[in-house]
């Protein structure tokens, strides 16, 4: 099969190449998925597990990408809950070959059935963005109706989902980003917007929850905005500055079949719209990863044309 691989840590994006790789094997309770569309996180070339397995052993050439939508073509021994020919979407394991390939092996529990009326490119934009937003806001942030949440990067892949979910539960939503993102964030449901380039965090006031996807100085300055008993939640990096009378949480997204199904139901009935910024062929993966390429929403790589 063909896959995007990386071999050299120092090569960066330039080291992403389209390569012939062995067809994967399905272990117990796993499935082989023919990948139709795949998502990625731009920073994953810096993640340790891109280069080593859970035991710390080198696993290059490795296949990046951890979000996928496709069709089950093979069942491992003991696999339950999924069937051959079933449309699915979900997450691959962080420390194994990923989704930027024609086929990949995935634990069945990390996948959810995909309704026939959701396109694979839309579904591939959901796993990390949707699960990160839900887990950050509700599992860790404990956001409830009537509270105020500050969502950094409100027009991005994760932030755009967070804005919509927070608005749905009845929270007051303040989005942040570049000035050009204002109208997009407001259209998604943000009640207010802060331009981080011109306004910074002035005017945010005190909030119950900060949901951060940016890290760095923005994360550090956000701690002071959390009111007593509130929570600073981030997926960017462990926070060095903590709220005076609140909690600070850094977390990694966890696969959750039931929650993926719930997110898909929201997409079907119009309560949630994943923002797909661009759809590119697998051959343009390096261009998609390029740091200077700023796309609103989630960039998705099309592996198989619909109907193929």
What does this molecule look like?
This protein is of the alpha/beta class and 308 residues long. It has two domains: 2-126 and 256-302, Alpha-Beta Complex (Quinone Oxidoreductase, Chain A, domain 1); 141-250, Rossmann fold. It has helices spanning 120-123, 127-140, 157-168, 182-188, 216-222, 257-268, 285-289; strands at residues 2-5, 17-20, 30-39, 67-75, 87-91, 103-107, 111-113, 148-151, 172-177, 192-195, 207-212, 226-234, 247-250, 276-281, 298-302. Strands 3, 4, 5, 6, 7, 14 and 15 form a seven-stranded mixed beta sheet that branches. A six-stranded parallel beta sheet has the order 10-9-8-11-12-13, with helices on both faces. The protein has a two-stranded antiparallel ribbon with strand order 1-2. Helix 7 links the parallel strand 14 (276-281) and strand 15. Helix 2 (127-140) crosses helix 3. The longest helix is centred in the middle third of the chain and has 14 residues, at 127-140. The protein is globular and about 55 Å long. One of its GO terms (molecular function) is oxidoreductase activity. Residues 12-301 form the Enoyl reductase (ER) domain. This is NADP-dependent oxidoreductase. It comes from Mycolicibacter kumamotonensis. It holds the Pfam family ADH_N.
């Amino acid at each position: 099969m063909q896959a995007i691989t990386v071999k050299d840590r120092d090569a960066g994006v330039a080291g992403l190449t389209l390569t012939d790789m062995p067809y994967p094997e399905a272990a117990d309770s796993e499935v082989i998925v023919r990948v139709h569309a795949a998502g990625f996180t731009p920073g994953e070339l810096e993640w340790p597990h891109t280069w080593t397995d859970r035991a710390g052993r080198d696993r290059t050439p490795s296949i990046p990408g951890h979000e996928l939508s496709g069709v089950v073509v093979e069942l491992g021994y003991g696999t339950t809950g999924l069937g051959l020919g079933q449309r699915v979407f979900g997450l691959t394991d962080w420390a194994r070959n990923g989704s930027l390939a024609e086929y990949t092996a995935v634990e069945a529990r990390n996948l959810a059935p995909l309704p026939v009326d959701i396109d694979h490119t839309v579904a591939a934009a959901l796993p990390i963005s949707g699960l990160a937003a839900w887990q950050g806001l509700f599992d860790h942030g404990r956001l409830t109706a009537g509270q105020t949440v500050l969502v950094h990067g409100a027009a991005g892949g994760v932030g755009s989902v967070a804005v919509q979910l927070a608005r749905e539960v009845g929270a007051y939503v303040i989005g942040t980003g570049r000035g050009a993102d204002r109208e997009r964030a407001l259209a998604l449901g943000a009640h207010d917007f802060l331009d981080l380039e011109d306004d910074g965090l002035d005017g945010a006031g005190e909030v119950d929850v900060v949901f951060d996807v940016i890290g760095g100085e923005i994360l550090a300055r956000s701690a002071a905005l959390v009111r007593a008993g509130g929570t600073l939640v981030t997926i960017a990096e462990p926070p060095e500055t903590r709220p005076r009378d609140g909690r600070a949480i850094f977390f990694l997204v966890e696969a959750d079949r039931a929650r993926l199904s719930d997110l898909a139901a929201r997409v079907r009935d119009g309560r949630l719209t994943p923002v797909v910024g661009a759809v590119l062929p697998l051959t343009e993966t390096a261009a998609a990863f390029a740091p200077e390429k700023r796309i609103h929403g989630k960039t998705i790589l099309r592996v198989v044309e619909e109907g193929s």
